[in-house]
Write a structure and sequence with these properties.
Blueprint lengths: L2 H17 L9 E5 L5 H9 L4 E4 L2 H11 L5 E4 L8 H4 L5 E5 L2 H14 L3 E6 L16 H8 L5 E7 L8 H21 L4 E7 L6 H6 L4 E4 L1 H4 L26 E3 L5 E4 L10 E2 L4 E4 L3 E4 H15 L6 H18 L6 H17 L8 H14 L8
Parallel strand pairs: 1-2, 1-8, 2-3, 3-4, 4-5, 5-6, 6-7
Antiparallel strand pairs: 9-10, 11-12, 12-13
Helix pairs in contact: 5-11, 10-11, 10-13, 11-12
Length: 382
């Protein structure tokens, strides 16, 4: 079948599903999930009346957008968003479906303030409780919505989830029912500036079930474009290796002396981080860290950045990141993953400006010291 025929079949399936729940086909927004689909096939879908493009990877999306931006289509970002990709995602997306942590919110707000505009967003919730998936835990979702609502630049438009990958319909429905329940609780609480307009749930294998459970936005890929060559693991990796995916833990660990050191704080991808003293933190993987040395190094890094002659835009972004890292380092119980994330983001901004830290003698010594302190491989700086 052609893309046009597939699209027509999907729309007919949507029409059949909505009759069961007393809705109309036009109540359902169809987002075409176009990961790995080449621009010409996407163009074919647009001409067949597919109006919204949903991309999972920022760099992949930018290349397609350069080819297709003249077409009559709206672009959404539906994949996991790293903080160092915020600047780029804003070049094409009119809605981001995957807001799941406050560090990303802060970064988006910073960039949107600089550009003087706002962005429609959905909060992603991990309703299947799978380690392989991104999204805020259901129990923490309402608090995150309340936190996001404080930012004028981010317009909360609803929630998003990915159902459990299983043939068990009961388990799939459970995920979608949970998202609807959270949505209803948020509406009941009357959170200011949270316009709960959309429930984005349901993909090619389960969108009809999702509609029956309350979805009014579905993300359809293979049912329109056919089976893609890239496996799901590329988009939903089985291991969490990104500091952005950090979750708090409560269990105690022991320090090098064998004495329980205290409660874990937000651990990022450096396991076992604990506060054990005023100026020292410890991790199982990189040992003891002198916070005072880290603070001084961050301040030195910030001062040296000011002398690089970067654009005011890049300078502002880097200053924001390093200031946030310093603020975190000054807390009584600093979260190492947050410091690491901000430092990584600042380095990426320098790279995007066409500079390499290795070639900047004024920065290299300080940057390598910070990298070692927070557990980043030195190759990242190059």
């Amino acid at each position: 079948m052609s893309i046009k025929e597939n699209l027509e079949l999907v729309k007919q399936n949507i029409a059949d599903a909505v009759t069961k729940v007393g809705k109309k086909p036009e109540d359902i927004i169809l987002v075409m999930a176009t990961k790995t689909v080449d621009p010409e096939r996407i163009r074919e879908a647009i001409h067949a009346d597919g109006r919204i493009i949903g991309e999972n990877k920022v760099q992949e999306a930018l290349k397609k957008y350069a080819v297709l931006k003249g077409e009559n289509a709206e672009w959404h970002f539906i994949g996991h968003l790293q903080t160092n990709k915020v600047k780029d995602v804003l070049k094409f997306a009119s809605m981001i479906h995957s807001i799941d942590r406050i560090s990303l919110v802060e970064k988006l707000d910073q960039r949107l303030q600089y550009e003087g505009r706002s962005m429609d967003i959905l909060v992603q919730i991990n309703t299947s409780y799978e380690e392989s998936k991104y999204g805020i835990a259901p129990e923490e979702a309402i608090l995150l919505v309340k936190q996001i609502a404080r930012y004028d630049t981010l317009k909360i438009r609803g929630l998003m989830t990915i159902g459990l990958f299983t043939k068990d319909e009961v388990k799939i429905r459970k995920c979608f029912k949970l998202l609807k329940e959270i949505n209803d609780k948020i509406i009941k609480e009357g959170i200011e500036r949270a316009e709960m307009k959309y429930l984005s749930m349901g993909m090619s294998g389960d969108y009809q079930i999702a509609i029956e459970e309350g979805a009014n936005m579905v993300r359809i890929g293979t049912a329109i474009f056919g089976v893609r060559p890239t496996p799901d693991a590329y988009y939903w990796p089985s291991e969490k290796t990104d500091a952005d995916r950090a979750k708090p833990a409560d269990k105690k660990i022991e320090n090098s002396t064998g004495i329980a050191a205290g409660r874990n704080v937000n651990i990022g991808n450096v396991s076992g981080q604990v506060a054990i003293g005023k100026n020292i933190i410890q991790t199982q993987s990189i040992g003891r860290i002198d916070l005072e040395e880290l603070r001084k190094s961050l301040l030195d890094f910030q001062e040296r950045i000011a002398k690089l002659g970067l654009s005011s835009e890049d300078q502002s972004i880097i200053n924001g990141d390093i200031s946030a890292a310093i603020k975190e380092a000054n807390k009584e119980k600093p979260v190492l993953s947050k410091i690491k994330e901000r430092f990584e983001s600042s380095v990426n901004t320098i790279k995007e400006a066409g500079k390499t830290i290795k070639d900047i003698s004024e920065l290299y010594e300080t940057a390598t010291k910070i990298a070692k302190l927070v557990g980043i491989g030195l190759s990242f700086l190059f």
